Amino acid sequence: MADSEEDHENEAACHCVPPQEGSEKTESEREKRYRERMQRKKEVIDSAIARADQNKGLLLILTGNGKGKSSSAFGMIARALGHGMRVGVAQFIKSRKDTGEEAFFRHQENVIWHVLGEGFTWDTQDLARDTETAQRGWAIVQEMLRDPTLDLIVLDELTYPIKFGWLDLTMVLNDLKNRPPMQHVVITGRAAPEALCEAADTVTEMRDIKHAYRAGIQAQKGIDL
Predict the structure, then answer these.
(1) When you count CB atoms within 10 A of the terminal residue's CB, does the N or C end of the chain come out lower?
(2) pTM of structure
(3) Average confidence (pLDDT) over 49-78
(4) Are 62 and 138 in contact (CB under 8 A)?
């Protein structure tokens, strides 16, 4: 009986392209190597987690010329609030009160927010006034650093009053050292002093690669303010 046209089509459909020789074996070896690599990585990570048996309030420094220092700190505020923690914010240098972060966080139940600055030094151009403003602001911070009910404190742009000599670094370090044991502090600003970085538990440096401002683009709501 002659084969029908349909039989020939079915036969042709069954002649799939055969797998390349060794491809299944190669894939199996890749999966095995991947599994072994992940197992080794898991052992390293599990070991590091097991060694991390301390629990303490952290001092974190966010410095460098790149964008994102304050934004990162405000992200930690959101994280802390998600855990029901109380947060205090002290903003040095900045005097404006129309930023998105303040508009949002100031009205949160567990947030205390202080704008302590009067603008940048090239705006005020008054050393005595800038020094007095910074020291008056630090007196407020000292109260916050003595308050055990504040779980996280953000000292935004604190590095500038230190750099310009408005605040004594030794005093700042002493106040930070004597804060409640479980109180976390985040400090932002360029050119963080070496002594401050040495006292910190975590230091992150933001690197400036490219910035829209240098192309003549204005600060944008939701991104820069």
Answers:
(1) N
(2) 0.79
(3) 93
(4) no
Whether residue 110 is predicted with pLDDT greater than 90 in this model: the reply is yes
Residue 129 vs residues 89, 117, 118, 124, 126: alpha-carbon distances, Å: 22, 11, 9, 8, 5
Q: Are 191 and 208 in contact (CB under 8 A)?
A: no
pLDDT, tens digit (0-9, with 9 covering 90-100), for 142-173: 999 999 999 999 999 999 999 999 999 999 99
Residue 142 neighbours by CB distance under 10 Å: 15
DSSP state, residue 165: T
Beta bridge pairs of residue 113: 89
Query: What is the sign of the dihedral through the CA atoms of 13, 14, 18 and 19?
Result: positive
In single-letter form, the type of residue at position 48 comes to A
Start-end of H helices in the chain: 5-14, 23-51, 69-82, 100-105, 121-124, 127-145, 159-163, 169-177, 194-199
CA 26 to CA 29: how far, in whole Å? Answer: 5
Amino acid 130: pLDDT: 87
User: Residue 45 gets which letter from DSSP?
Assistant: H
- Cα distances from 8 to residues 2, 4, 5, 51, in angstroms, run 11, 7, 5, 68
Residues for the chain: how many in total?
Answer: 225
The token pair that represents 73 in the structure block: 């700190």
Distances (CA, A) of 62 to 11, 14, 66, 67, 201: 69, 64, 10, 10, 11
